[in-house]
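Protocol step 4 of 6: structure prediction from sequence.
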Amino acid sequence: MYDEIAKGYDRLHKEEQLDKLKIIAQYFKPKALMLDLGCGTGIAMDYFDVDSVGIDPSLELLKLGKGNRVCCYAENLPFKDDSFSSVICLTAVHHMDVDLVIKEVKRVCKGDVCFSVLKKAAKSDEIVKKLVEAFELKIIEEKKDFILFK
C-alpha cells in the first residue's frame, strides 16, 4: 500500500510526525536499543538519539531512510526475546493486528513503549483500550492522535 506513495511520504507526513514527536519526547525517553514499528522513512528513528532498528512492510519506504531497517510485519518480529529496551510506533498501529502486536512487543521489549493512534482510524477506541490495558499506558490527546506512553 505505501510502496506507491513512498517517494512523497515525507513531503506529506514528515512535518506532522515531527510535531507529534516533540510532544512524545516530553514523556517518552527511549533507551538503546529502540524498535520502531512501522518506521516508514525513519522519522522517529532519526528524532531520538539512540541506537534503533526500524521495521516496515514497505520496502520502498525503508529504502528512503538510513540506519538499521528490516522489511517485516510487526505481528511477526524476527528478533529474539528481550532484544529491545524500548519500542515506538508512530501512527501505524491502526494498520496492524493489535492483539498480535501486543504479544510481539511484550516478547521483544523489556522496557518502555509508546504508541500514537490516529483518532479517526476505524476502531481507534478499541485499539487504545487494548494498548493501555496491555502495557499500563498513560494517554495524551494530540490534534489527530492519542499518544500512549509508559
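Step 5 (inspection) to follow. The beta strands are 34-37, 52-56, 68-71, 84-90, 109-118, 138-141, 145-149.
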